[in-house]
Automatic annotation (TrEMBL):
Its cofactor is a monovalent cation. This is Folylpolyglutamate synthase. One of its GO terms (biological process) is one-carbon metabolic process. Pathway: Cofactor biosynthesis; tetrahydrofolylpolyglutamate biosynthesis. It comes from the Eukaryota. SUPFAM superfamilies: MurD-like peptide ligases, catalytic domain (SSF53623), MurD-like peptide ligases, peptide-binding domain (SSF53244). NCBIfam families: folC. It catalyses: (6S)-5,6,7,8-tetrahydrofolyl-(gamma-L-Glu)(n) + L-glutamate + ATP = (6S)-5,6,7,8-tetrahydrofolyl-(gamma-L-Glu)(n+1) + ADP + phosphate + H(+). Belongs to the folylpolyglutamate synthase family. It comes from Kalanchoe fedtschenkoi. PANTHER family: FOLYLPOLYGLUTAMATE SYNTHASE, MITOCHONDRIAL, FOLYLPOLYGLUTAMATE SYNTHASE-RELATED. Gene3D superfamilies: Mur ligase, C-terminal domain (3.90.190.20), Mur-like, catalytic domain (3.40.1190.10). GO terms for cellular component: cytosol; mitochondrion. One of its GO terms (molecular function) is ATP binding.
Length: 652
């Protein structure tokens, strides 16, 4: 019988598992916790998964009638009783994890291009923004979107960081916040934050299937289902409206003028972060053309802010602001002294530029919504002083894959008997830099980080046992003991990949020259294919590709050739790690003392290798460090946000 009618004691929780149809989800049947002693056997559920009888479902005193999944005992259920007819059951009746993977498959079906350089039209007779308006109308959100109090941010570099700072500042100021950023690194839910936390899987599924089913019912030949980013943008609006956020911080996806987010008619304030040469195949091959797209988010009567830009880009921004007769204020980088001894939650000197812009955007939002005087009129002595809420927000802001330091605890967790000092130390420095300007910033941050490891300092550290190891200000302070460990001889390793639409020679040259200027040199460069695919949306629970799966390494060999030519001034014999018995293979020369630590390389020594897969690369690194107790290996992972996300997934 499904579900069992006899209440049984649950071994882990004396709560009641009751069944309810989640009407707002339209695509999933889930169970929830409430008061009582009732449980459903997962095994019994599995056997009856696709053939549940129609029945009246009673849950002692509490039944949820409504549109949400409920999975915590703290939620209060309405007392009611209702029946579920067989034909009302959802089409996709699966376990929650399976349902989430089903949603990922549905999202993947919206990817219309096989690679980023593919600019083929989507289809249909409407423009992107016309389609966005029609999707919003299908979902009945026209009036609700206009009521959202939005901060809209475009730019080439730092827009995600700026948005993150803005959200944290306003959350610390007491507001319910929504944050929409892109791309995600490991799980698509990273793109949607509510009060600083990524949306739960249950809420995501509820809003996802609601949007999906309504759009499926409303589209036709002239208006096909939205491509991936358009769907995610519409979903963000849906989430923020339903969750009644008081401020929505929206990051532009690509460009500005024609971006899906530019369906926003009247934000409270707009911002443009640092501009540079990126996405030139779409936005144009000059900085002024790119600036024109970014300025497309400016709206009449909406104040705008930007940072110092190249002269041609600044001219375009000012011209557009003048056309709309709106003020455009150029913001200076944040003065560190205003933090009163606190540290920014995001590492790197370039983050002071983003923080300065975020402060101006947040303050203007507070002023225009009538909240500044209510909150800070009597708490701030002068205009140059930062309120305590601003400092808390700036110091606790966090975003993955941007100047992130991850200490790999795999060796000590999996080999506890080995002892604290019987294995080496492996640290990953992750930054998804993929433009010349961002690569320069990444290199500067990396050099500062590795060259200061002997000092007492604050580092954003993730302890890779699934928990974030951070103090209240978002940092972990090194003790004297960990500083002593950092005195071990170090080896610097570059783990690199980039998309084929990038110019790897420019990126690698910028990285090497910036590092060399500070006396920082890599012992080895590893070129490896990413695990993730451009045409598939995966989650944190998605499987890791088999090490036996062979990938085309042509692009990686090209990267290696560029590297060796740049380092030696000539081609050298390519080194590829063994492809035979790969589980037992060791990277040759990895920790060899022949490899210089902080001086130019031997002219006859191959300073790079092509790796067959990312999982094997991580395994090799761990094996080598475990077998060399004196080793302190610091790995810079950069060139691609896809690569950074894949490494984070493997480390978790």
């Amino acid at each position: 019988m499904w579900p069992p009618t006899t209440p049984t004691k649950h071994p882990y929780n004396s709560k009641l598992y009751g069944w309810s149809w989640s009407g707002g989800c339209r695509g999933a049947l889930d169970f929830y916790l409430s008061g009582g002693l009732f449980s459903i056997s997962p095994l019994h559920w599995r056997h009856n998964l696709f053939n549940p009888p129609a029945r009246v479902i009673r849950s002692s005193n509490n039944i949820r009638r409504g549109i949400r999944f409920t999975n915590t005992a703290s939620q209060i259920m309405e007392s009611s009783l209702y029946s579920v007819a067989y034909d009302e059951l959802p089409r996709m009746l699966t376990f929650p994890s399976s349902s989430y993977e089903t949603a990922m498959e549905a999202l993947s079906s919206l990817i219309t291009r096989q690679k980023r350089a593919d600019r083929s039209p989507i289809g249909g007779k409407f423009s992107k923004l016309e389609r966005m308006t029609m999707y919003i109308k299908i979902l009945g959100m026209e009036e609700d979107i206009d009521k959202l109090r939005i901060i809209h941010v475009a730019g080439t570099k730092g827009k995600g960081s700026t948005c993150t700072f803005c959200e944290a500042i306003l959350r610390e100021s007491g507001f319910r916040t929504g944050l929409f950023t892109s791309p995600h690194l490991v799980d698509v839910r990273e793109r949607f934050r509510l009060d600083g936390l990524e949306i739960s899987q249950e809420k995501f599924l509820e809003y996802f299937w609601d949007c999906w089913n309504q759009l499926k019912a409303g589209v036709d030949e002239d208006l096909p289902m939205p491509p991936l980013f358009q769907f995610l943008t519409v979903l963000a609006f849906k989430i923020f409206i339903a969750e009644k956020v008081e401020v929505a911080v929206i990051e532009v996806g690509l460009g500005g003028k024609k971006d899906s987010t530019n369906v926003i008619k009247e934000p409270v304030v707009c911002g443009v972060t640092s501009l540079g040469m990126d996405h030139t195949e779409t936005l144009g091959d000059t900085i002024d053309k790119i600036a024109s797209h970014k300025a497309g988010i400016f709206k009449p009567k909406v104040p705008a802010f930007t940072v110092y830009q190249p002269s041609k880009a600044m001219d375009v921004l000012h011209q557009r602001a003048d056309e709309l007769q709106i003020p455009l204020e150029v913001v200076s980088p944040l003065n560190p002294e205003k933090l009163k001894g606190a540290k920014l939650g995001l590492s790197g000197d370039h983050q002071f530029t983003n923080a300065g812009l975020a402060v101006s955007l947040a303050k203007r939002w507070l002023l225009n919504t009538g909240n500044w005087d209510k909150l800070f009129q009597h708490n701030v002595s002068n205009d140059s002083e930062l309120p305590e809420a601003f400092i808390r927000g700036l110091s606790t802001a966090h975003i993955s894959g941007r100047a992130q330091i991850v200490q790999d605890s795999h060796i000590r967790i999996n080999f506890p008997a080995a002892g604290r000092n019987s294995s080496g130390e492996l640290t990953f420095y992750l930054d998804g830099a993929h433009s010349p300007e961002s690569m320069e910033a990444c290199a500067s941050w990396f050099c500062n980080a590795v060259n200061e490891t002997n000092d007492r300092q604050h580092l954003s550290v993730t302890c890779q046992n699934g928990n974030l190891k951070r103090l209240s200000n978002g940092y972990v302070e090194h003790t004297a003991e960990t500083a002593d460990e950092c005195n071990r001889p170090r080896k610097l390793v570059l783990l690199f990949n980039c998309m084929d639409v990038r110019d790897p020679e420019v990126l690698l040259q910028k990285l090497v020259s910036t590092c060399s200027d500070s006396g920082t040199h890599f012992s080895k460069a590893l070129f490896v294919p990413s695990m993730s695919s451009y045409n598939k949306v995966t989650s944190a629970n998605s499987g890791i590709p088999s090490p036996a799966e062979r990938k085309d390494l042509t692009w990686q060999f090209n990267l290696q050739k560029i590297w060796e030519k740049m380092i030696h001034g000539k081609d050298v014999v390519h080194e590829q790690f063994p492809m035979g018995n790969r589980e037992n293979s060791r990277p040759p020369y990895f920790l060899s003392e022949k490899v210089p630590v902080s001086c130019p390389w031997d002219k006859d020594f191959a300073t790079s290798a092509v790796m067959p897969s990312l999982p094997l690369t991580i395994k090799w690194l761990r094996d080598c460090v475990r077998e060399n107790p004196s080793a302190r290996v610091q790995v810079l992972v950069t060139g691609s946000l896809h690569l950074v996300g894949d490494v984070l997934k493997l480390l978790r």
